[in-house]
Amino acid sequence: MTDILRFSRTSGLLRLLGLMCLPVLLLASPHLAQAQFKSTKPEARVEYWQSRLASMEAQLADNQGLSQYRLVFLGDSITDFFLMGENLWFPGVKNGRSVWDATFAGSDPALKAINLGISGDRIEHMLYRIQRKDQGGLGQLDHPSFNPDYVIVLAGINNSWASETPADASIVAGVKALVASVHARQPKARIILQSLMPTQEVARTKDIVIPVNRELKAFAEEDPQKAYITFVDLYPRFVTPEGAQNKALFYDGLHPSEAGYAVWRDVLVAAIAADRAR
Known about the structure:
Strands 2-1-3-4-5 form a five-stranded parallel β-sheet, with helices on both faces. Helices cover 43% and strands 9% of the residues. The chain has nine helices and five strands; from the N terminus they run H-H-H-E-H-H-E-H-E-H-E-H-E-H. Helix 5 (97-103) packs parallel to helix 9 (258-276). The chain starts with a helix and ends with a helix. The protein is of the alpha/beta class.
């Protein structure tokens, strides 16, 4: 009995010492402190596209700065991620930021560009963003000091998911509407209309991407829009000799890797130089 009482007292003393030492341990090891976890602090939910739109709107509010941009990129995540360095969702993957900074950030004033790409945007979302404010849109191309030489459009691949039927016809109709709206907003600018890039999904590429590209090329070569559109076919530069998506230029089967953005940049720069020399 004496041994049991002695053990109980000793055990109780050890527990008391442990409780007294716990605050010190928590201070010494922040990872043990619940207050250090992000999960313990209130935070409003802000989706990536919302923060991207907010930063874009702030950039568009700089009227003096807008006059310097010779190129406007309009698109979805493929365009948006031209501005992303380390990928936010794929650790170790780099997107196009270094390529963008080397070419479109202003070292060559003739190629200084603003990026109006937002991840997840479908064609209808881009139409909303460039629709006039008095018509309910955001009016992103209507700023008085905006006077770009080119608006560079890449749109439609997101409409191949949860798509209307037939998907290819819906995408082509949407891109045509987008081009018409861009031209109405910026009639002095030439439009670089780009083809869709191949995806890793053979059926999606065969049934949607290739037919859409064929229709967009024909559209760009017709009157009256051929006077202000240059069609740039990206597709051949992103496939292997066998016709499959070149996986070395993508990291998830859809979005270009850093190497893919370098290829895209080279195609665009050459196309713009040729167009300016016409």
